[in-house]
User: Which sequence fits this backbone?
């Protein structure tokens, strides 16, 4: 109680540092962080998919695309420097998203108390995606690590050749267990986006009759686009469209 | 009709509780759920057993005292209806009904189906009122209020504070309750003076007791007044705005 009273003491002028601390440690503030980082990750996932669809153009095109990423900034900046700045930003975004999720999950578990309902809960609004956010999130996070080991660092891919984007990808997806793993991970990602891309509007306060109709449509479309786009590459290799 | 009830019985806040099974015969289809419990209690009284404790007051869906978990649904199977307004015709002969108290760390069980909902009072105490000194009250119709604002504020003010939103929430969050209480004041001109302080104080008091919102939407379907989760989104927006306003204030309240 004392904390809430102290925080709204009208004679106390709050500095911005206090504001930052108060806001971003509150549940609502952390949900803002999750939504904002979520938007960042959605943009990344979309860009990643669009870039990789170049495999359908030609092997040369995707290899050049990889090279172009390393060459970002042209001759103005050292090679891979811009790419590294982007990577660090991406890692930080992931870190904040996961950290906020962990803190909020802990608070929610505590708030639930020890005794749960005995009767099976009859879910009227919560859907499969919203109730499995934690698990789909963990699957996606583990998958990202595997994906890096497979196609960036290469140690999970016996035929890995540095810089040979196209050949590496084909070598990987031709192994059936790897292809299945990628598809399962994409399914988890689609579920995560289905709830996340809707939920972020709530967290950011974008609601009302003007928005509610297209919020759900946006989330479905985004999840479907990412799922179809990414899986098309895996299927492309499996069915030798890409070889 | 005849029913089998599985009811949570707990002698006191510290006691260990458990389910007890009761057979009820000849329940009228026109009885309310609470009247059905009354019937069970009369039988228990006649046998010299402790009656089942449950909260209730108005029995017409406006006070918010009643509320139990019925077969895993807060307030039972009929949408937009408090337990006292739920009729037994929603059940069929021979049904087995599990009746449990609301479950949340902030709502400890006092006895049987009665829980302590005083954290809701703490939230209201921290800002759910208007205290700005305004002189003598002007005629109500002298303050122009847009129709949309009135309607929304009225929707929010329909909250009876029963706690079904917390009971329904997988995170035991009270966001729908708090958002409704904030919105019905923040939407109206009379509520503007204390708007930002109210929002911060009520949200932060809420967070001391309850979990956080993960946007399942269960609360909205459990709410006997069918209050929309749009209010939660508006609270999220107002909370951020309030945080921007407060640091820029120069030690003056209510501006
Ligand atoms: S007893 Fe008053 S709302 Fe049910």
Assistant:
């Amino acid at each position: 109680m004392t904390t809430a009273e102290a925080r709204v003491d009208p004679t106390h002028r709050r500095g911005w540092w206090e504001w930052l601390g108060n806001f971003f440690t509150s549940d609502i503030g952390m949900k803002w962080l999750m939504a904002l980082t979520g938007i960042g990750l959605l943009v990344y996932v979309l860009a990643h998919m669009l870039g990789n669809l170049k495999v359908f153009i030609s092997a040369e095109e995707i290899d050049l695309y990889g090279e172009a990423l390393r060459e970002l900034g042209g001759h103005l900046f050292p090679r891979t420097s811009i790419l590294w700045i982007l990577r660090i930003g991406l890692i930080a975004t992931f870190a904040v998203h996961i950290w906020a999720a962990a803190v909020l999950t802990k608070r929610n578990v505590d708030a639930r108390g020890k005794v749960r309902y005995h009767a099976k809960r009859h879910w009227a609004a919560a859907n499969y995606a919203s109730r499995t956010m934690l698990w789909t999130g963990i699957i996606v996070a583990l998958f990202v690590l595997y994906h890096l080991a497979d196609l960036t660092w290469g140690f999970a891919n016996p035929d890995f050749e540095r810089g040979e984007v196209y050949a590496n990808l084909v070598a990987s997806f031709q192994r059936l267990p790897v292809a299945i793993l990628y598809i399962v991970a994409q399914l988890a990602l689609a579920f995560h986006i289905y709830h996340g891309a809707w939920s972020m509007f709530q967290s950011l306060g974008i609601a009302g009759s003007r928005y509610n109709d297209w919020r759900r449509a946006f989330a479905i479309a985004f999840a479907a686009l990412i799922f179809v786009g990414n899986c098309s590459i895996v299927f492309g290799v499996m069915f030798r469209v890409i070889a | 009709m005849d029913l089998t009830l599985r009811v949570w019985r707990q002698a006191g806040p510290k006691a260990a509780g458990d389910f007890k099974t009761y057979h009820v015969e000849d329940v009228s289809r026109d009885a309310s759920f609470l009247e059905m419990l009354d019937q069970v209690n009369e039988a228990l009284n006649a046998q010299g057993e402790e009656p089942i404790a449950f909260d209730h007051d108005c029995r017409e869906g406006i006070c918010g005292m009643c509320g139990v978990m019925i077969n895993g649904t807060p307030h039972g199977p009929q949408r937009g209806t408090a337990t006292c307004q739920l009729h037994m015709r929603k059940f069929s002969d021979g049904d087995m009904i599990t009746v449990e108290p609301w479950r949340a760390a902030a709502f400890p069980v006092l006895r049987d189906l009665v829980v302590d909902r005083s954290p809701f009072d703490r939230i209201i105490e921290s800002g759910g009122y208007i205290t700005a000194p305004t002189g003598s009250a002007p005629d109500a119709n002298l303050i122009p209020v847009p129709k949309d604002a009135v309607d929304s504020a009225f929707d929010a003010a329909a909250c009876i504070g029963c706690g079904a939103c917390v009971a329904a929430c997988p995170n035991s969050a009270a966001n729908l309750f708090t958002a409704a209480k904030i919105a019905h004041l923040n939407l109206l001109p009379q509520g503007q003076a204390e708007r930002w302080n109210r929002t911060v104080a009520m949200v932060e008091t809420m967070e001391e007791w309850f979990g956080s919102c993960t946007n399942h939407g269960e609360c909205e379907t459990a709410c006997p007044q069918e209050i929309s989760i749009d209010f939660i989104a508006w609270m999220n927006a107002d909370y951020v705005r309030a945080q921007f306003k407060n640091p820029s204030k120069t030690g003056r309240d209510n501006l």
